[in-house]
Amino acid sequence: MFFPEFDNSRLTAQLSGSRFTVVYRLAGDEQTSLAKAKDICAEQSVEFPVGILPDGAIPQQIVGRIEEFVPETENVYRAKISFADEIAAGEFTQFLNVVFGNISIKSGIQVAGLELSKTVFGLVPGPRFGISGIRGIIGVSGRPPLFTALKPMGLSADNLAKLAEQFVEGGIDIIKDDHGLSNQVFAPFEERVQRCAAAVQEANVKFNRKSIYVPNITAPSEQLLDKAHFAKEHGAGGLLITPGLTGLDQLRRLAAAKIGLPVFAHPAFIGSYVMSQEQGINCGVLFGTLMRLAGADATIYPNHGGRFPLSVQDCADIVQKSREPLEAFKPIFPCPAGGMELHNIDEMIRQNGKDMLILVGSGLFRCGDDLAANCRMFGEKIKG
Amino acid sequence: MFFPEFDNSRLTAQLSGSRFTVVYRLAGDEQTSLAKAKDICAEQSVEFPVGILPDGAIPQQIVGRIEEFVPETENVYRAKISFADEIAAGEFTQFLNVVFGNISIKSGIQVAGLELSKTVFGLVPGPRFGISGIRGIIGVSGRPPLFTALKPMGLSADNLAKLAEQFVEGGIDIIKDDHGLSNQVFAPFEERVQRCAAAVQEANVKFNRKSIYVPNITAPSEQLLDKAHFAKEHGAGGLLITPGLTGLDQLRRLAAAKIGLPVFAHPAFIGSYVMSQEQGINCGVLFGTLMRLAGADATIYPNHGGRFPLSVQDCADIVQKSREPLEAFKPIFPCPAGGMELHNIDEMIRQNGKDMLILVGSGLFRCGDDLAANCRMFGEKIKG
User: Fold this and answer.
1) What is the least distance, in Å, from the CA of A151 to any CA of chain B?
2) pLDDT in tens, A115-133
3) Is A107 exposed, middle or buried (0-12, 13-18, 19+ CB in 10 A)?
4) How many domains, chain A?
């Protein structure tokens, strides 16, 4: 009897009874998978041997509860495990910890789905703009918006601004910084944002467009919101952040800060969570649900058929989770990317429909010497 | 000729020539691995087809450079790739992006080592206390300090404080919150910190010890530093943070803020980076080098032989990287944990020597009904 002073009635009164559910995909035969499910219930909550817990609400409500355990395929099982809302403590960080904290270091466990409660939905801002908000800003309906990136690293702010102008001329709707452009001396953040935002605004007037420039504000956290405000003040039309580098919580913080610009999430550094079917977080949950909950209005991901190894199914999951009904959260743009070329566009539209951003970067430089003309070819492909 | 206005002499003048090196472990035969190495050079820098870059400093200096390419074992190669200091842009976040940004979403690439430059070392605070600083605070030399955790979740702040008192009585040197205790209604952060810090201080007087209480300050980023200051003001002796949940950059921010308390890093949520030998980041680099650079004074990791699957070699790598000479950075405590029991201690000491923290949590509840007596057994095991 290690906890003689534990007051079970006090704890019971503090628990609402509301729970949220995580769906886990478990690798192993039935016995192994069931043992994993039982282990998750304790590992993600009390982290203590269940047999020596004080009786009452701790084993009954604080410890996770297996709500369903079913075979998926041979040697793969699905467990739905529910947790008391209160253990997420009103914090997005602690919610992530319950979902996949310690078990991120165990093998054969993948987060395959989330079925959340009002309390947990209330922990996150969700997307402020979503698909309809971004479409409104750029004035594009009825087709996928055209999306590209300013690159390569090493160009000056003026060089990048000149590129941005050509992109507007060619009809690109959304022009983002390459995610590696942060504050390098050859194109420092403030100078780059001012030059590129001004170039896009001038080109919009000249070519009668509503294109936007989306600078990369990924930075050490002390600078993140200042950069967001600077970008807004100087005419940027959106903000790019890489949550893998800053932490997912910084995406939440950015969206919660209500800067007044849509947020575009980039997948760099976070890939290790999705590189195995047996471990990590399902692509749709990570790039779809979690990015959306945390506040992304558009989620960039490496599409199948490009430079990256995600499968057709992985990408379909991301598209679905980005746009499916989810509490009161707006649907967000999935943005297939990562080595897309013009010849991939028909298939992308066939698979995903019109509510996506098609991100073609280097591909625009591969199909001819005239960049604006290449952009027009991109547009014609899409408007097809 | 896409970039007619690019000024190569301007860029050349902006590059110092200093470079940092990342060692990658590449899976595949020689041809495949070499292609991966070449791909990394562009993917992690210009993200652009090298053949159509403007001549000069971009392909020669901005693009990564293969410095060495050697076989490690059959179908595994090691490539040392150097990058210009300037592309890290003075930012820890962008440094991480160069090391493992987009390639985190490619298969068969593991970060196996870092050989950094003065500039890159200058991006991070490193540990403020390290092994010697923590030993000084708790007054322990010549043996591994005894480390445990307050749990299970569901206890009240008073219950946890009572536990902490028993731990001090039993001779535990460092008493941390379980990493899942954040701000739950049953033991809210401020109440818990005040009660537990006071209990440890009172017990120190009563039992003539110098034990410290290390609260978990992992939280949404708006609250992180406030929680750190609150903990310091109310008598905490260290701070626990889970960089996987907050982002590694928040560990850096915490250490850079000079709160005046040693920082303990917990491995939850970050496990997917180390779950494969073919993808991700080597255990030693992640839990050793990166945590240490970012500012951890002690790095908790799931030891082999417990509930987690890390190998003997993985753990040896963490111990080595925590303590090896690294610029002017202090050596930090490796903290083997994750299901350690008293019978594991002899082996841990044989493998790691005395400069580690031995974290036994639930194990202290498994070896008898008297907690303080169990702690004394733990101490006797360590003092040998």
Assistant:
1) 7
2) 999 999 999 999 999 999 9
3) middle
4) 2
